């Protein structure tokens, strides 16, 4: 998702004094520390292994020790696949130059750099993930709002209650239930395709976690069980305790506490209103302000309360959500979740839960600690628990009685100087400039969905990726380097890998679609070849034979060794003008969406990756709906998110038409009657 933005042109500095021997020692030290972190994680997980043998039902970490290590691909294979991936994007001269750079690298520095990666893969359980977190996320000095954080929406069609405090009460209580099961390791193990075990370590830092700003690099602070929540409402910060008498607050008690906050009419203290803008702007000013203005007194006490909270909740004052009658409602909803007012979300928390006056909810997620499927797993559990287990009274309140004697939420206290207020305002203005530039469009594709695509004997993901290539070419008139996020969680501590979707086969298919002389049979044949190629690349990425993470790690080692590589510098600076990601759904299968078709999520999205490109997140919702979240920048004269959505719509239908027009040969398989009409 948003990782593609951070993965372009990043830089870092290694400052050991002396010669290559010292530099080599720096690499060895870094590799050693990577392994040390792994062993600490193993010690934490040992208690779960003890539980595993005490019962028959497998627990969350039951298969963790059996997961294989991520293999280090051969340099020759990676370079071959890389050159193949850029072939359709370069002319003969450009490709020849890149081929020369690649061969020079292979014959000079590659073997030395590769040896260090192999050494790291023996010592650490994953040769990529800790460097990926550090250099792609934590060392970035630019704003994380829009550029890194992502969002997840509520149910698309259903709002179980329109009472803001009640909905927040149920959702927060469901999150506490999820957290308790997570801390006890009681969630079922994650499995790909329902059978292959997947790594669960990212889930460990879901709660009680904050990204702490630093001058050169941030750190992720994760604490043990936290017993309070911080709530932001109309410029005020409140602390709410989540336990009473050794138990969680009931949904009705949480509703009562949140309603007390909504009823509070006190004014923000000086500097309090926009304080969270510090987390939305550049990291260095925030780190400096934190040291100077928040390291002592009431400011430190209040900041500690925020950073040590289970998570952060915003009680928003403007209604959002999808409204089929209201134009652009999904666009406004997405922008609210992605950046809000730039000062009403604590962008450093592992996630900010956002509650709207009409009962809608959503989540803004800090990206360094985990990827979207991890948060999606929690969100599925929470929404299902909210709607089908906790439920609401006829008046829309949380069920059950509340202890009216609970102490009121307490206001956090601040003494924010004029100097600090100036820093806050500067951060706010820089963040607002970024937010105002986000051109977002939410597009609901309802012509057909997964059901019809599968009857055409095609992978739904490959179908959509090829539609995106066709839409991109129609929108821009050129092909571009395309990023699709794939997971590597079948390996220990795995995160993501890149699938380079703009292949030679995809280009040939798109050109045939735009060639009026091409026959339907020719187009269909080229589509099938391109889809097969895409599926093969996706399999390679998932099984540790991708391109980009290997090259990224070779680049990191080259920087530690001071061994400059023109080839790696070139590769790591290439812009991803089309960045895409599929949001998984039904990871838990808690809701039968065939029986309850309105209880479907709207998915989530992320900000634009390139100044002149598009970010596209999509979710395949059941059999008959695909939701696209499209972002770009208003400042780019060549992009338009709504226009791109229309190009996706047309591309999807045009590809489906290939199957229905093939002289009726595949009509029984592919022609479907939907919404009372034939789609041809």
From TrEMBL:
Active site: 367 (proton acceptor)
InterPro entries: Carn_acyl_trans, CAT-like_dom_sf, Cho/carn_acyl_trans, Cho/carn_acyl_trans_2, CPT_N
GO molecular function: carnitine O-palmitoyltransferase activity
Enzyme nomenclature, EC number: 2.3.1.21
Name of the protein this chain belongs to: Carnitine O-palmitoyltransferase 1, muscle isoform
PANTHER family: CARNITINE O-ACYLTRANSFERASE, CARNITINE O-PALMITOYLTRANSFERASE 1, MUSCLE ISOFORM
Family (UniProt): Belongs to the carnitine/choline acetyltransferase family.
């Amino acid at each position: 998702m948003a990782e593609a933005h951070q993965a372009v042109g990043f830089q870092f500095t290694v400052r050991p004094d002396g010669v290559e021997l010292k530099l080599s020692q720096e690499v060895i030290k870094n590799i050693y520390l990577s392994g040390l972190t792994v062993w600490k994680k193993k010690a934490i997980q040992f208690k779960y292994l003890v539980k595993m043998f005490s019962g028959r039902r497998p627990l969350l970490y039951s298969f963790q020790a059996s997961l294989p290590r991520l293999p280090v691909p051969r340099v020759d294979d990676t370079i071959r696949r890389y050159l193949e991936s850029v072939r359709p994007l370069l002319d003969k001269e450009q490709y020849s130059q890149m081929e020369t750079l690649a061969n020079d690298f292979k014959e000079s520095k590659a073997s030395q750099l590769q040896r260090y990666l192999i050494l790291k893969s023996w010592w650490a359980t994953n040769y990529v993930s800790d460097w990926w977190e550090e250099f792609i996320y934590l060392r970035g000095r630019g704003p994380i709002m829009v550029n890194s954080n992502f969002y997840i929406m509520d149910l698309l069609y259903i709002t179980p209650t329109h009472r803001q405090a009640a909905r927040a009460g149920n959702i927060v209580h469901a999150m506490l239930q999820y957290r308790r099961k997570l801390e006890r390791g009681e969630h079922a193990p994650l499995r790909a395709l329902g059978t292959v075990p997947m790594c669960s370590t990212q889930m460990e830092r879901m709660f009680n976690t904050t990204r702490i700003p630093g001058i050169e690099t941030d750190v992720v602070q994760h604490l043990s069980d936290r017993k309070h929540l911080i709530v932001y409402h109309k410029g005020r910060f409140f602390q709410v305790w989540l336990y009473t008498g050794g138990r969680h607050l009931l949904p009705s008690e949480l509703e009562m506490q949140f309603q007390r906050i909504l009823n509070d009419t006190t004014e923000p203290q000086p500097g309090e209103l926009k304080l969270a803008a510090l987390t939305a702007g550049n990291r260095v000013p925030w780190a400096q302000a934190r040291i100077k203005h928040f390291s002592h007194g009431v400011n430190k006490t209040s900041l500690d309360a925020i950073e040590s909270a289970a998570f952060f909740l915003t009680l928003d004052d403007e209604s959002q959500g999808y409204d089929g009658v209201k134009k652009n409602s999904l666009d406004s909803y997405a922008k609210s979740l992605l950046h809000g007012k730039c000062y009403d979300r604590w962008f450093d928390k592992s996630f900010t839960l956002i509650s709207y006056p009409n009962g809608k909810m959503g989540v803004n997620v800090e990206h360094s600690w985990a990827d979207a499927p991890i948060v999606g797993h929690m969100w599925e559990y929470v929404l299902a628990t909210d709607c089908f287990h906790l439920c609401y009274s006829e008046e829309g309140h949380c069920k059950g009685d509340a202890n009216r004697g609970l102490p009121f939420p307490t206001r956090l206290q601040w003494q924010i100087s004029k100097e600090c207020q100036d820093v806050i305002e500067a951060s706010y203005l820089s963040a607002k400039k970024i937010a105002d530039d986000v051109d977002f469009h939410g597009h609901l594709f309802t012509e057909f969905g997964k059901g019809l695509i599968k009857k055409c004997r095609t992978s739904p993901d490959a179908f959509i990726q090829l539609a995106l290539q066709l839409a991109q070419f129609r929108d821009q008139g050129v092909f571009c380097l395309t990023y699709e996020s794939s997971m590597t969680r079948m390996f220990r501590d795995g995160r993501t890998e890149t699938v380079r979707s703009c292949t030679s086969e995809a280009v040939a298919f798109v050109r045939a679609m735009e060639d009026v002389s091409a026959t339907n049979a020719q187009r269909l044949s080229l589509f099938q070849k391109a889809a097969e190629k895409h599926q093969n690349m996706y399999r390679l990425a998932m099984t540790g034979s991708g391109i980009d993470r290997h090259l990224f790690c070779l680049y990191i080692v080259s920087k530690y060794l001071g061994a400059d590589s023109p080839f790696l510098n070139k590769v790591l600076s290439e812009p991803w003008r089309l960045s895409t990601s599929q949001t998984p759904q039904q990871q838990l299968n808690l809701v039968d969406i065939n029986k309850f078709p309105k209880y479907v999520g709207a998915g989530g999205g992320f900000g634009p990756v390139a100044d002149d490109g598009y970010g596209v997140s999509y979710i395949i919702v059941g059999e008959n709906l695909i939701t696209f979240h499209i972002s770009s920048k208003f400042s780019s004269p060549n992009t338009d998110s709504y226009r791109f959505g229309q190009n996706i719509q047309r591309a999807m239908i045009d590809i489906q038409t290939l199957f229905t027009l093939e002289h009726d040969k595949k009509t029984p398989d592919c022609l479907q009657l939907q919404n009372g009409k034939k789609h041809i």
